[in-house]
Amino acid sequence: MKKVTSRAFAALLLAGLILLGMAVYLIRLVRDGGDWASFYANDSVYTNGVIDRGTVTDRNGVLLAFSGREAFGYAEDYSVRVSCLHVVGDMSGSIGTGALTAFRSKLVGYSLLTGTTGSGGTVRLSIDSALNVTAYNALAGRNGTVLVYDYETGQILCMTSSVSYDPNVGFDVSDSTYDGAFINRAISSSFVPGSVFKLVTLAAAIENIPDLWSQTFTCQGTYDVDGKTITCTGVHGSLTVEEALAHSCNCAFAQIALQLGGDLIAEYAEKYGLTETHDLNGIETAAGSVDSAGSDRANVAWEGIGQYNDLVVPYSLLRLMGAIANGGVVKEPSLLYGKSGGTERIMSQSTAEALSDMMSYNVEYNYGAGNYPGLEMHAKTGTAEFGDGTSHAWFAGFITNPDAPLAFVVLVEHGGGGYAVASPIANTVLQQAVFG
Predict the structure, then answer these.
(1) For residues 318 and 330, what is the distance between their CA atoms, to the nearest angstrom?
(2) Residue 302 and residue 293: Cα distance in Å, rounded?
(3) pTM for the full model?
(4) Which structural domain range is residue 173 located in?
(5) Could you tell me the CATH number of the domain that includes residue 398?
(6) Residue 379's CB: how many other CB atoms inside 10 A?
(7) Model confidence over 341-395: pLDDT tens digits?
(8) Virtual torsion, Cα 421, 426, 429, 432, nearest 10 deg
(9) Looking at the domain assignment, is residue 232 inside a domain?
(10) DSSP string, 354-376
């Protein structure tokens, strides 16, 4: 009797283990089936290492890439191929964040019920290829990136990166002109932010310095911090905090940063998502870095100004611009047409509204609203010193036109001044996005 009981128990245990194994397999099949079907070793969907089925289009149906058993290729128009390269990717997978790699399970036409289809699937991206062409041309051969997204729907309309190349031709890897050609600077690189980072410092000040609005700051062109000199772009005299942002006054923001401390500034950068990776439709973005300067007061001052060891990914800055425009709630960006990302509150509504008002004041008071005709512009420039005598040019912000709720980031590496270099690029791209 005992033998029968032990055998029954063993049989039940074995059955339980089999059921558990089947449950684990089914869970993994549902979760990872698309990745299994599109794995590079699957000869049924790859030919000589190239995916042999599927089509990628932009939001308007413009063909960006196609692959089949007989042939594969890219957009017919050279400008479209080059300007959309990093968001589309290449057939060999050298650009690992491109759609051809990131969305390969959709391209092979995988279904949980039927497996892969013979004809493959279509991936419709949210980007407007014509807008990408305009942005790439506006960069005029300079390394950098342009990003535009609808901060209410999350749809990315423009994502272009330079340096680029024609995927139909390739390039000579020994040619230094193409250094970094496989990198999408929008999502996979971090840069010194310069004065666009002052928005983070300002947000921290709004929430932690009770008398911020009644304070005045003094700028004589330089500011001494424990025997070390903080330099400014001009002599601004006595300023309110609104005027300090409009003039992008380093001396004033050094004084604000010292009141906050380096730990708090770094905490706010993390809170706003500038120092973490993000999930863009399954694509992992790079992370920025904002180290607390600790007890070194001069470095704390530079930290709050956007220099010191500060590094920001353009994509992460785009999210922050969208959050400010959206009353403190970020709508997660999406590269897939019609696919809506989640939402997250990263800032109080009152802080977001204060920043929005001051960014609008920047345009009216300093940049000139006439430079952006028809655009309800809220923005901040950045001229980030790089250490070799050059500066990255930034322009970041959003517009509040009723039919065009768009946030944007423009970066030109080693380009010079943000207002002179990056701002006109943003205007060119936004004019087309809003008025066609």
Answers:
(1) 10
(2) 9
(3) 0.89
(4) 133-435
(5) 3.40.710.10
(6) 27
(7) 899 999 999 999 999 999 999 999 899 999 999 999 999 999 998 878 899 999 9
(8) -120
(9) yes
(10) HHHHHHHHHIIIII-GGGSTT--
